[in-house]
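Hi all, posting the design record for the shared folder.

TITLE: backbone redesign
STEP: 1 of 1
STRUCTURE INPUT:
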């Protein structure tokens, strides 16, 4: 990418336009809204810091998704070394059940969200990229750095697990 404030400004504008898709992807990778928002913020910070590295003519969404994915991998590696951190103030909230949450969990959307979050991370990322974000198998394969056949296999397994959890017959999630 050429040096210059006009080009850097256009990258910033494109990043802003990509925020809704990036947010969905980060939420799916992280498994919850709070961690997803943190991942999205870190992704945007890194993208803005390295806007000069963005290559003109490439897909900005793919570049952002790759940054998010790499940050998530780094965080996962870190958590395996350090363990899961939970503030002591959140501990009482972990006990018992919330009546409102029980009602929400009965909905089909909640079941699908739980099924999506229960997927292994590689299947969840593939599912979100192809089904939610509409990337082609080739684009998803390039982004995830795996063969197209692996994307197809992960997607088939993810769809099967989600359909099984929410009780739909084959082909219910398109």
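Okay, here is what came back for every position:
SEQUENCE:
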């Amino acid at each position: 990418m050429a040096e210059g404030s006009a080009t850097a400004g256009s990258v910033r504008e494109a990043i802003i336009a990509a925020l809704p898709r990036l947010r969905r992807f980060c939420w799916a990778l992280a498994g919850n809204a709070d961690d997803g928002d943190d991942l999205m913020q870190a992704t945007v910070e890194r993208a803005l810091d390295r806007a000069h590295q963005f290559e003109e003519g490439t897909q900005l969404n793919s570049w952002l998704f790759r940054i998010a994915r790499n940050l998530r991998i780094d965080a996962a590696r870190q958590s395996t070394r350090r363990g899961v951190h939970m503030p002591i103030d959140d501990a009482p909230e972990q006990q018992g059940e919330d009546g409102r949450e029980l009602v929400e969990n009965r909905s089909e959307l909640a079941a699908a969200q739980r099924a999506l979050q229960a997927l292994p991370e590689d299947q969840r990322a593939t599912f979100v990229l192809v089904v939610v974000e509409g990337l082609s198998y080739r684009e998803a394969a390039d982004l995830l750095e795996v063969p197209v056949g692996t994307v197809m296999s992960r997607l088939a397994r993810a769809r099967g697990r989600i359909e099984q959890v929410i009780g739909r017959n084959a082909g219910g999630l398109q």
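COMMENT: Helices lie at 5-30, 33-49, 60-82, 99-105, 108-118, 121-132, 137-144, 148-166.
Let me know if anyone wants the other runs.
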